[in-house]
Amino acid sequence: MVGTWGAACGASADCASMRKTQHGFTLPELLTAMAIIAILAGIAVPTMRQFAGNSRTTAANNSLVSALATARSEALRRSSTVTICASTDSATCVASGGTSTDWSTGWIVFMDVNANGAFDAASDQLLQAWSAPGGNVKVSADSNLLTYDPRGLLFTPGTKVTFNTLVNGCRGLNQTQVVVTLGGSPQNTHIACP
Q: Of 76, 142, 146, 154, which residue is most buried, by most CB within 10 angstroms?
């Protein structure tokens, strides 16, 4: 028998260390595995960030479309004027009668008895409130409010309202646009990020 370093084994005890198998990785194997993991992580992290951003945009867009559907259905159900507007406190409209077009702070739907576009606690009824989407999601519109008449049509004739939803760092066709037609129904599309 041949022992350690090519020396002959005189007794079986001298060759016992050769029968034990070695477990583990060598340093070059470990470094190679770590390099492969680093490359894969470098590819996956930006993709995961984009996926997370797209998910936040979709969630905010779905919340907005849900609010629009709620406002329209409540206008039809109650045969009353219902308004949806941007809100920072889930209780009042932002810049009532103003021109604020940032909806990133949340929005409310309320029965607008006198159809003035402002929530009057004494006469109007708050139907539902949505909080801010969060996660660096920006929601904007070309109007600070939208009002449905008792027939579910836009209260202001001849005007459609467009909402845009995107996340900071948006790339590709990952911005969503909701156009509320004169008939009151929202139409959802994906458009190119700015």
A: 146
Whether residue 24 is contained in a domain is answered as no
Tokens linked to 193: 């990020």
In a domain? residue 19? no
pLDDT in tens, 40-98: 888 877 777 888 888 888 999 999 999 999 999 999 999 999 999 999 898 888 865 55
Rg of the chain on CA atoms, in Å: 31
Nearest Cα residue to 141 out of 188, 93, 95, 101: 101
**Cα–Cα distance measured from residue 180 to residue 148, given in angstroms and rounded to the nearest whole number:** 11
89's CB contacts (< 8 A; 6+ apart) are none
Assigned token pair, 59: 């969630």
Backbone angles phi, psi at 178, to 5 degrees: -115, 120
Residue 17 placed within a domain: no
Number of domains making up the chain: 1
Is the sign of the CA dihedral 85, 90, 95, 97 positive or negative? positive
Which residues, including other chains, have CB under 8 Å from residue 28's CB and lie 6 or more apart? none
CB proximity list for 118: less than 8 A, separation 6 or greater: 93, 96, 97, 112
Output the domain CATH number for residue 83. 3.55.40.10
The domain of 182 spans: 29-191
Nearest partner of 92 among 78, 80, 109, judged by Cα: 109
The alpha carbon of residue 67 and the mean position of all alpha carbons in its chain are separated, in whole angstroms, by 16
